[in-house]
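tool_call predict_complex ligand=guanosine-5'-monophosphate
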Amino acid sequence: MLSNKAIIFCGPSGAGKTTIAKYLLENNPRLRFSISACTRPVRKNESAGRDYYFLSKQEFKEKIANNEFIEWEEVYEGSYYGTLKSEIESIWAENKIAIFDVDVKGGLRLKNYFQHHALAIYVKVPHLNLLTKRLLKRNTDTEQSIKQRIAKAKYEASFENQFDATLLNDKMKVTLAKAQQLVDVFLQT
Ligand code: 5GP
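tool_result ok
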């Protein structure tokens, strides 16, 4: 049975996780994105139920109390993110393989949860300066939010060796091909 497998992407904001996940989802019909719940405000170009389940802090805390999350984190001060059990159940009900885009702590929790059914991939860029440039270019984050994301990237880098594979995202086209290769091998085993 393939459906209990999980592909987990972690790494700093701006490293390219979302682009890689989107590419894999378009090219691999057996994969389905695990939509997380979060409490940060919705950005332009995002929609509720597609990018995230946008919840109030009150709603999020109720779900924590009801044990509805597999994992959750206060990823940035005051902003909670988490993987709902109901989301995984709905992915499994469709006999699909879950693909995650979460922070490093959440990713390692999911890896522990799915054990050998998980492929955990750490995505990084050749240099942190490049991250700042990409975050500025995408024009969705405030200066404060960019600073938070760079500080977090530095911290998260220390966990890289706990992942099954690292993708160094220098040229996106090459990275996408490597990501597909990793997924192909993983799905065959
Ligand atoms: P953003 O606000 O840029 O969409 O995401 C911020 C960070 O939260 C990213 O590193 C993203 O991977 C992480 N994230 C998104 N969903 C989850 C989740 O369900 N759990 C955890 N632990 N992190 C998440």
